[in-house]
Amino acid sequence: FQPSAELQGFYIQDATGDGDATTSDGIFVHTGTTDNTVSAGDSVRVTGYAREQFGQTTLNGSNANNSAVTAANIVDCGDGSVIAVDVTMPFASTIFPERYEGMLVRFPQPLYVTEHFQLGRFGQVVLSADGRLAQPTNIVAPGAPAQAQAAANSLNRIVLDDASQAQNTDPIVFARGGQPLSAGNTLRGGDSAEAHEL
User: Do 71 and 35 touch, CB atoms closer than 8 A?
Assistant: First the structure.
């Protein structure tokens, strides 16, 4: 995710971990506009300042109190690998996914396209387990039942993003069979996705 048009960084994960299943062993490393700093499978040592940026914890080269965000210091240490952690939905709570932030994960259960409104503009698809999520008032009465259903829906969804910061990209990468979106290869609500590492 290093190119300027993408997330301008990469994810690292401690191959050993801290032994605490409730905390993440991964983090996003901000590289700025420097492309191709590392390759997948590299073992690295990174120093920098941890900060919350765009809803995720990141390592940056600038002090957390400094508004400028520069690249973290990265040293190549050879090759390495991590094993994907199996994750299933629905989640136990809204903060439950935090334990997997920045980590290599795998969804062994079938996931379904539940929303694709942002697909064309932002390259995002909402996936859910156990079929497509319905609008709460389409299946339960308004009021407390609908509020409970909305809360349950929020625990059973994840956004799949194309990692690009560009808008209205061409081609759009998410369609059927791992091929780009086209008039002949669409993506529809209810389509299922096979288990892959994310």
Answer: no
User: What contacts 189, CB < 8 A, 6 or more positions away?
Assistant: 113, 114, 115, 116, 132
Measured over all CA atoms, what is the biggest interatomic distance in the chain, rounded to whole angstroms? 58
Q: Is 148 helix (H, G, I), strand (E, B) or coil?
A: helix
> Residue 145 above 60 pLDDT?
yes
Coil, helix or strand at residue 144 = helix
Measured between alpha carbons, how far is 26 from 17 in angstroms, rounded to an integer? 9
Predicted local confidence at residue 60, as pLDDT: 82
Which of these, 118, 106, 100, lies nearest to 28 by C-alpha position? 100
Q: Which amino acid is at 135?
A: Q
* Number of Cβ within a 10 Å radius of residue 24: 20
- 162-170, Cβ contacts within 8 angstroms, sequence gap of 24 or more: 162/123, 162/124, 163/1, 163/6, 163/7, 163/123, 164/5, 164/6, 164/123, 165/5, 165/6, 165/7, 166/5, 167/121, 167/122, 168/120, 168/121, 169/123
Mean pLDDT of 26-51: 83
Residues 6+ apart with CB under 8 A from 34: 2, 71
Count of other CB atoms within 10 angstroms of residue 87:
18
Task: State the average pLDDT for the chain.
Answer: 87
d(Cα 120, Cα 131) in Å, to the nearest integer? 22
Residue 107 is encoded by which pair of tokens? 């969804």
With cut-offs at 50, 70 and 90, classify the pLDDT of residue 151.
Answer: very high
